[in-house]
Write a structure and sequence with these properties.
Blueprint (H helix, E strand, L loop, with lengths): L2 H11 L6 H8 L5 H13 L1 H19 L4 H12 L4 H24 L14 E7 L6 E6 L5 E7 L8 E6 L2 E6 L1 E3 L3 E8 L11 E6 L2
Antiparallel strand pairs: 1-2, 2-3, 3-7, 4-5, 4-8, 6-7
Helix pairs in contact: 3-4
Amino acid sequence: MELEDFEQLLENTKFEHLSEATLISYNDSQLDKIRLALADAHLKLCLICDRRLTFLKEEAEALESYVVTEEDRASIQQLIRKPRTKLATVSTELERLNSYIKDLLTAWIIPFSKQAMRGTGDGDEVWRYQSEDGLLTAWAILEKDVSLTVHFSSPELAWEGSRLRFRLGRFKKEVTLQGEGDSRVAARVKIPRAERTKKMADISIEVISA
């Protein structure tokens, strides 16, 4: 990546809070060089994310030294038996999905920070993302009619019914993660040739409730 592209990426992401998954990977020293540099740059500017990271570090240290008692086990069992409300469950799942989507967006912006889109043959896969735990996979296909189709797929059935508000340049579309067989949910966005943007890094995806 050229210096000017990297600087543009820093400018685009410095005002977006780091996701929980990114903070955990940062704390565990599991980020690659580019994502580490982006996280470092954001943490220098964002007091909120810096405090969240401090909390994660303190929590990890406390867990390492904590000894589970019989009273703790009894409390845990009681919580497991207590059903959560539907609203609380939906809110938690949306937050989880949103965390994955933020990492996906970073993975999109890096290769598409240049104007040109790679891939010259019909049916070419021009981009692919998979979360470290495999819970979210996405890929983009340049179709025979030169439209661009972005696919989303996940084995997390709790995300079924969640909607994604997708924007690429001036193109906007809302899609829903729907069951695909018995073991996955999926959605796709097809961007016609006439509505494709040259600025492929100008993207946003908002997670909204069903």
